[in-house]
C-alpha cells in the first residue's frame, strides 16, 4: 500500500514521543471548486485528524491561506484542533493588528487588484484580514487568466508582497508565512516530530522550516523540498487514517 519512503515516515511519526500534525486545506484535504465555500472535503482525512487530536502528546492544526472563520466553516474543524488562517497570521488562539502603514498598503493593493479583475470576465478579488487575493479559476479564457495573474504579480506596492498560487495571485501586508507559523508552533509545543502536508507553492515555506526529525509531504505533482510525496487527496486521507491507527496502537 505504501512505498518504503512513505512507510518509513508513517512508522517514525506513529512512534514519536510527541507529535505536531499540521495540514494545509485546499488541495490537500479538499479539492477545488468555483465556489470556495463549496469545495469537496475529504471527510476521511478530517476524521483521521480529529482522531489524532484525541491521542496523548499529539497536537493537530489546520494551516491555510483562508481566513480563520471561513476555514472553520468549510472544514468543519472542531476543538481541540488548532485552526490557523491567513498563512498563520491569525488563529483560534489570536491574531495580528495591522498598523497604519499596513492598512494603507492593503487599501492600495485592493484597488489595484479590483481594477485588474474588472477587466477580465470571471476574475474576482477575495478580501482577507491581511491579504487580498485575485482569483482566476472562473475565467474561461486561460490566456486572459494568465495575463491577469502576470499583471497582478508585476504590481509594485510598498508594504505589499505578491505571490502566485493555484489560480490565484495573493498580496500580503504581513510577513507571516506557513514556515514562520510552523517554527513558532514548534517553539511553543516542543514536539519530537512535526508532520506538514501541503500541495501548493505557498506550502514550500512550511516544508523548508522542517528539521531532520520532521516529515514534509507534498500532495500531487510539482517541484518540492518535501521528503515524501502522496499522489492525491484520497491518498492523504488514507495516510492520515493509517497514522491515526498506528499511533493509537503505539501508545497502548
TrEMBL record:
<dbReference type="GO" id="GO:0046872">
    <property type="term" value="F:metal ion binding"/>
</dbReference>
<keyword id="KW-0460">Magnesium</keyword>
<protein>
    <recommendedName>
        <fullName>Trehalose 6-phosphate phosphatase</fullName>
        <ecNumber>3.1.3.12</ecNumber>
    </recommendedName>
</protein>
<comment type="similarity">
    <text>Belongs to the trehalose phosphatase family.</text>
</comment>
<keyword id="KW-0378">Hydrolase</keyword>
<dbReference type="InterPro" id="IPR023214">
    <property type="entry name" value="HAD_sf"/>
</dbReference>
<dbReference type="GO" id="GO:0004805">
    <property type="term" value="F:trehalose-phosphatase activity"/>
</dbReference>
<dbReference type="Pfam" id="PF02358">
    <property type="entry name" value="Trehalose_PPase"/>
</dbReference>
<comment type="function">
    <text>Removes the phosphate from trehalose 6-phosphate to produce free trehalose.</text>
</comment>
<comment type="pathway">
    <text>Glycan biosynthesis; trehalose biosynthesis.</text>
</comment>
<keyword id="KW-0479">Metal-binding</keyword>
<dbReference type="InterPro" id="IPR036412">
    <property type="entry name" value="HAD-like_sf"/>
</dbReference>
<dbReference type="InterPro" id="IPR003337">
    <property type="entry name" value="Trehalose_PPase"/>
</dbReference>
<dbReference type="GO" id="GO:0005992">
    <property type="term" value="P:trehalose biosynthetic process"/>
</dbReference>
Amino acid at each position: 500500500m505504501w512505498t518504503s519512503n512513505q512507510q518509513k515516515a508513517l512508522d517514525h511519526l506513529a512512534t514519536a514521543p510527541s507529535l505536531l500534525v499540521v495540514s494545509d486545506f485546499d488541495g490537500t484535504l479538499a479539492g477545488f471548486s468555483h465556489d470556495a465555500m463549496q469545495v469537496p472535503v475529504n471527510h476521511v482525512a478530517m476524521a483521521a485528524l480529529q482522531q489524532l487530536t484525541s491521542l496523548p502528546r499529539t497536537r493537530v492544526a489546520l494551516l491555510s491561506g483562508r481566513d480563520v472563520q471561513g476555514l472553520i466553516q468549510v472544514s468543519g474543524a472542531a476543538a481541540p484542533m488548532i485552526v490557523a488562517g491567513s498563512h498563520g497570521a491569525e488563529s483560534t488562539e489570536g491574531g495580528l493588528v495591522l498598523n497604519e502603514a499596513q492598512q494603507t498598503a492593503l487599501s492600495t493593493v485592493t484597488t489595484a487588484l479590483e481594477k485588474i479583475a474588472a477587466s477580465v470576465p470571471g476574475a474576482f478579488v477575495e478580501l482577507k484580514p491581511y491579504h487580498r487575493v485575485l482569483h482566476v479559476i472562473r475565467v474561461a479564457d486561460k490566456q486572459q487568466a494568465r495575463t491577469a495573474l502576470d499583471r497582478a504579480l508585476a504590481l509594485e506596492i510598498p508594504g505589499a508582497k505578491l505571490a502566485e498560487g493555484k489560480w490565484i495571485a495573493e498580496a500580503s501586508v504581513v510577513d507571516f508565512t506557513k514556515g514562520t507559523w510552523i517554527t513558532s508552533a514548534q517553539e511553543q509545543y516542543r514536539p519530537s516530530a512535526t508532520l506538514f502536508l501541503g500541495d501548493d507553492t505557498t506550502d514550500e515555506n512550511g516544508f523548508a522550516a522542517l528539521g531532520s526529525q520532521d516529515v514534509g509531504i507534498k500532495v500531487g505533482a510539482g517541484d518540492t523540498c518535501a521528503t515524501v510525496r502522496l499522489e492525491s487527496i484520497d491518498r492523504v486521507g488514507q495516510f492520515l487514517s493509517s497514522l491515526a491507527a498506528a499511533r493509537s496502537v503505539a501508545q497502548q
